[in-house]
Design a protein that fits this description.
Elements lengths: L2 E6 L4 H18 L4 E6 L11 H9 L5 E4 L9 H13 L3 E4 L4 E3 L3 H34 L11 H4 L5 H9 L4 H7 L4 H11 L16
GO biological process, one term: DNA integration
Protein name: Resolvase
GO molecular function, one term: DNA binding
Length: 213
């Protein structure tokens, strides 16, 4: 059975040394020897499966192996991700130790209770994220802002950067056929864009007057 220690590398060398020292001190107290250190330079914001810890847990470690983290915050930035890692570890018979919090996750009752508490925290975090998202969308809607992507095809939206240029051409009385050539697009694309912008208004026809003899 192999023993691993995970270090998330930052630009602060002192922080890295502190992680290593904390892990070694804990491992010595717990009788965990022969640690193989795995250093990860990727930010904790990246999903754990896309970092070196993902390779370690999913590919390298075998049932019965142990991994020691310096602290929970070094596992991931999100409670949800931490819970995912712990769930994978317990279902594949991997032991996880967290040095600073002196926590151990295996198939024991205490580990299951702790994992349940973390699961509750993750659920609360999910609710907060959902609530903040809904509040932000409601505020944007109340402010009159359009939600989601702009309507219209990508080619039509591309003309947004030519808005001032197109308006100048229209004011000068240049035909729409010529404007389409000037901004390098098809006539239909220009017409759709003008329609979306409310600029494709047809000139009202002059009223005919009957001339009485």
């Amino acid at each position: 059975m192999a023993n691993y220690a995970y270090l998330r590398v930052s630009t602060d060398q002192q922080d890295l040394d502190n992680q290593r020292h904390g892990i070694l001190e804990y491992a010595n107290q717990q009788g965990i020897s022969g640690l193989q250190f795995v250093e990860d330079t990727v930010s904790g914001k990246v999903k754990w499966k896309e970092r070196r810890i993902g390779d370690l847990l999913l590919k390298t470690m075998q049932p019965g192996d142990t991994v020691v983290f310096a602290e929970i915050s070094r596992m991931a930035r999100s409670t949800l991700q931490v819970l995912e890692m712990l769930e994978h570890a317990t279902t594949t018979n991997l032991q996880v130790h967290i040095a600073k919090q002196r926590m151990r996750f295996d198939d024991s009752l205490n580990s299951k209770i702790t994992a349940t508490v973390l699961g509750l925290a993750a659920e609360i975090e999910r609710e907060f994220i959902s609530m903040r998202t809904k509040e932000a969308l409601a505020k944007r809607k109340a402010d009159g802002k359009t939600l989601g992507r702009p309507k219209g095809k990508a080619e039509t939206v591309r003309l947004d950067k030519h808005r001032d240029e197109i308006n100048r051409y229209l004011k000068k009385g240049i035909s729409k056929r010529s404007i389409a050539k000037l901004v390098d697009c098809s006539k239909s694309t220009l017409y759709n864009w003008l329609e979306r912008e409310g600029l494709n208004k047809k000139k009202p026809k002059a009223k005919s007057t009957d001339i009485k003899p």
